[in-house]
Amino acid sequence: MDTELFALRYLPLDHDTAISYARRFLPSATAAELPGPGNVNQVFRVIDDAGQSVIVKQALPYLKIVGDSWPLTLGRARIEAEALKLANQCAPGLTPALIDYDPAMAVVVMEDLQGFEVWRSALMAQRDYPAVPAQVGEYCARMFVGTSDFGMPPSQRKLLSARFCNPELCGITEALVFTDPFQDAGSNNFGAELVGPVRKLWSDRELQRAACLIRYHFRTTSESLIHGDLHTGSILAGPAGGRIIDTEFSFVGPVAYDIGVVLGNLLISFLAHRAQHHDRFATRLWLAADQFWSSFTETLAALWPPQEPWQDRFLARTLQCAARYAGTKLIRRVVGLAHAPDIDEIVDDGERFKAQLDALAAGRALMLSNGVASLVQLWDIAIDAPAV
Ligand code: SR1
Ligand code: MG
User: Fold this and answer.
1) Of 76, 102, 125, 147, which residue is least crowded by CB atoms under 10 Å?
2) Mean pLDDT by 10 residues, the chain (388 residues)
3) Strands 235-238 and 107-111: what pairing?
4) How many Cβ atoms sit within 10 Å of the Cβ of residue 98?
5) For ligand 1, which residues put their CB under 6 angstroms from it?
6) Which residues, in sequence order, are CB contacts of 125 under 8 Å at separation 6+?
7) Against a cut of 0.90, is the pTM above it?
8) Ligand 1 atom with minimal separation from the 70 CA
């Protein structure tokens, strides 16, 4: 196919056209494979015979996991590309390099990080990459400082909010994380064995109130450019450390959301391994959470402007909000539309059921938490939570 055609109008790529498309970046591209399932966009890894490769990621005019009944802006490709570019400036070396952004085709072409795997897959297989958690913490701190009012004049930060105005993808989070799992919504997705505990959550007025408050915080806090979907499937892991991908949910929001998503996903992994009696690896997940949070606080301490003497207040508030956000992630990945394979793929029915119930209990306890003063306390609230 003539590659010039691609510049004229939007065409969804398929396996063959993805190869043709990538030839302008990888002239002897010969093959394409799907690096993962992908909930939101379509992604191809295009390869040549010498083993060189690039990632070609295209936004579809709808949410991929749902289909065309959930239309979605192609503009998310621009957000992804611009966020990737900014992340490369604020946190160099912690994301893939942006090679190209094509607005007509809604395609982002980026470096293929060979030798890395999706962190969630590594955690599920009990493969430990010890440098990853600290690098993710460093990423969050560098992005916070670089894109908050500390890193740029307040007028520019306000322009950043406009540039990363991302209502449709924020809307997905508002619906699928903070709203639908807490009510009898059509998007929910759970088996008959969970009907009892889930109905209890739906009739828990205290929890309903907490979900509304947390959603309000997410909707109204504009402190820095956040990733917006920093679960362990948005992080690549390898011996060289961690790399952050999938920045299409980025917007200027609460940094506690990114922190909470990371911690919530490490807790999901912990609960899944505990249910399967993988005690040694479960302990490793606590260490990962601790390394992540320590790296965030240490990097922040090094970058925090000395003329702003309230870093302790910031950290206390951020940890408490992160605890509540983590709680929503634990519940949405069991009750809501998109699940965590860490739990869903547990083979033994009894172990899977235990992990599901533990995640609901942990999620509820974290969402209702108050006065969380340390990461140890946050972790203990989650792992010793009373049953729903
Ligand atoms: C329907 S899209 C489901 C989820 O996938 C993304 O990774 C986000 O977490 C979104 O909520
Ligand atoms: Mg993603």
Assistant:
1) 125
2) 59 96 97 87 96 97 92 97 98 98 98 96 97 98 97 94 97 98 98 98 98 98 98 96 97 98 99 98 98 98 96 98 99 97 98 98 98 97 98
3) unpaired
4) 20
5) 39-40, 63, 65, 172-173, 176, 229, 337-338
6) none
7) yes
8) 1
